Amino acid sequence: MIVWLNGTHGVGKTTTGALVQQLIPDSRVLDAEKVGVTLMDITPGLPWTGNFQHWPPWRPLVVETARHVLDYTGGTLVMPMTVLVEQYWREISEGLAHHGIPVRHFVLHAEEESLRERIAGDTVLGPDSPFRLDHLEPYAEAARTWLHAEAEVVDTTHLTPAGAAERIAAAVRS
Known about the structure:
There is one protein chain. The protein is of the alpha/beta class. The protein is built from eight helices and five strands. The chain has helices spanning 13-23, 33-40, 58-73, 86-98, 112-120, 130-134, 136-145, 161-173, and strands at 2-6, 27-29, 76-80, 103-109, 152-155. Helix 1 crosses helix 8 and helix 3 runs parallel beside helix 4.
């Protein structure tokens, strides 16, 4: 099984994912961003798109990486990864379904004011990361149009990462 943690950049997916992994026996964290980093390391570089998710190989490579890891280890993969383009989510989720891999798709959501406060105090990318701020509107649009309908939404506005992890783990166990 895959527990996919979606949501905008800075909402707490990585932190929550590590905590979810500790609560689900026989689970591992697989960060699909590393697949993108591998593609970014190709020399000479792939055509510039501004986002590795726009490269057509990224989505099937995420599917194949997850499939092979699960074939090798079994158990559960916790995958914290923002996917805001509906077509990309369809490619990934349908690819996993094609291989018979069940996915529990969660969206970590926080109100914009709370997100802006978190981004302002970010110690990973630094305060007021333009990258994270630039994704607030695309996330809001995806949330309005398709994302929240495709996932189990966990509102983290007033919830700690540990609280969010417990809710997700409890949902997966039920």
